[in-house]
Amino acid sequence: MTSIKQILCGTAVASLVAGTGAAIGAPIGYVGPSALDWLLTAEHVLLIGTDGTNLDKILQYAYGDDSGFKVAMDQGITGAASEVNHTTISGPSWSTILTGVWDTKHGVINNLFTPTPYNAWPTVFNLLEAHDPNINTTVVADWDYINGIGAAGAHPADNNFLIPFQDDWATTDAQVTAQTIAQILATADSPNISNFLFSYQVQVDEAGHGFGGGSPEYAQAVMNVGANIKEILAAVAQVKAATGDDWSVIITTDHGHQQSLGFGHGFQSPNETSQFVIFDQAGDHTTDGGQNLNFSIADITPTILALFGAPMRSDFDGVSMTDPSILNSFVQPDDLKQALLAAISMFGYPNIGNDITLAIRTLFTSVPYFLDKFINDISNYLQPIVDQDIFLISGLAEFAQQAIKFTGGLAVGATEALAQAVAHMTGVGTIAPTDPPLSAEFSDVWGLLGGDHGLAAPDLALPDFDVA
């Protein structure tokens, strides 16, 4: 069992702020202008994930000086990407981002979390910790699925912060931002410890599901996340000024959103398959404001490993973005915004056969997830009645709650088994790993003794809970 710290990062925390896929080993050849500096300092990599965020909405609503999206684009390379021919569901897509392989390999089909896939297909946290247990790895998220990924595998993340829902998703994302900033600023006290930090925000996707991707609420959520990212990047600049250590920054999303209110995503319209990757490599300013149309979310884990000099798996689907020539599509446009909009306009649907196949898969794999959500909603609705200890009424409510959980669990299990079969028949999880699974034999001794690797920002701790 891996303990995940559930925290509330509000004013108290804020106040604390006063390589190619087939290659083995570190990438050879292009090393970037800062390579000699990196030999003398710790490596720091920040991955920011914003769920369900369309790049064209970023360009429309959050491409100004008040947005961290614009700051990151000006300082790095932006790729207008697409996951056409892959499912546009969050669980599979974030699994690709954090493992470097598509669902044909990792086998994740929906948003019902299980740690099993990450034993065969280790996460970036597993791979970094296995390479060097002294790298401090951290997850800050407000969706427990992401925290589950961080806790899975033989070498889980050192620090795993689940931010509980508070008032609304914009407020909750602000707490994610506060904890992320606290984690970044904490590195100033330990400048010789390398760090990988994954910060995840969910409000854009929630606005899309609640109001549609073309709504004012969705636009506002995009602007909110842009403002949050600007605060995070300001913290990175503050630490850099204090320590001299630079940070590599990657920003991405898992999928886009339908424009009208409805299913949201899961199918193959260009709005749903829309993705982006922004990559700012520490010390490399020669590519600032550039564009690369060959970036993919599968490239993110290989890139992070390359930045830390960690070995690559031989069976990655992605490649490292540390050398723009590897992907052979780097350009320096006169107008980055217009170049990205032109790239987005070229995205289309898959062939009709793939479109139908993926639609069938989405329908089958969504049933157990929504059924599970419905059962949990009913159980949560009954819980206050159970807690009031009303004579007879509370007992009946508890009996109904248990009966619903039992029968509902059977239904979820049956529909999940059917969904797994349909997904497998349509190509999910059909490719086995060629690299052996990571062994836990050499797990971090300090971690086994109950410590971490030295970098956890102060927080307001709520009771811990366990993820199996």
Automatic annotation (TrEMBL):
InterPro entries the record matches: Alkaline_phosphatase_core_sf (IPR017850), Phosphodiest/P_Trfase (IPR002591)
Transmembrane segments: none
GO molecular function: hydrolase activity
Name listed for the protein in its UniProt record: Phosphodiesterase
